[in-house]
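Recall the central idea of this unit: under ordinary conditions, the amino acid sequence of a chain determines the structure it adopts. In this exercise we apply that idea directly, starting from the sequence alone.
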Amino acid sequence: MEVILLSNVRLSFPHIAEPQKRIDPKTGKERSSYSADFIMAPDHPGYAQFMKRVSELALLRWKEHASQVMQMITAERKQRCYGDGNQKVKSKTFQPYDGYAGQVFITAHNDIAPQIIQADGSPIDLQNTMAYQALTRKMYGGCRVNAAIKPWLQDNQHGRGVRCDLVAVQFAGDDQPFGEGAVDVSGMFGQVQQAAPTAAPAPAFMMPVPPFMGQ
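Accordingly, the structure predicted from this sequence is:
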């Protein structure tokens, strides 16, 4: 099966409600795409299915050279859409991003908006913009989702690699948000008191016009 279902995985760096805009460093052209990371345990069945499918595709494409090509792709982080979560580190601290340590991840992209699946299993009509936005904005970094993805192989002038299409996403439940999250400062405020009405300001004093100016 080409499309793989990742059940009950954590969502990270979601660009689902709106596409992310980036400048291609090679062409200088702007590209917009929907994307997300899906984080899971190394023994997650979906990850095993994903890697199995990648191996099958590699054998079909590169035949007897598949093992050598896959070793090259594995060694080059930018040429693959999957990896060890411990390698997904912040540029300043060199520490793994929230939720990645001890886990594995898959990054998926799509130039078009992915299907958004409702709680009852039915997809939202992409023409229903309000419903689409309402559900996608509910999907924050750290929440749990079910995701349908489709791995594929890159083999062109930009090199060989393993990529993944983002097909569909379904909100599966809340979890600890990644990052600091929204700061609750409500305790700093009290009840607003009705302010007493203020007297109307006195009219400004007008300097009388000299007679010669009024003529």
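The chain has four helices and seven strands.
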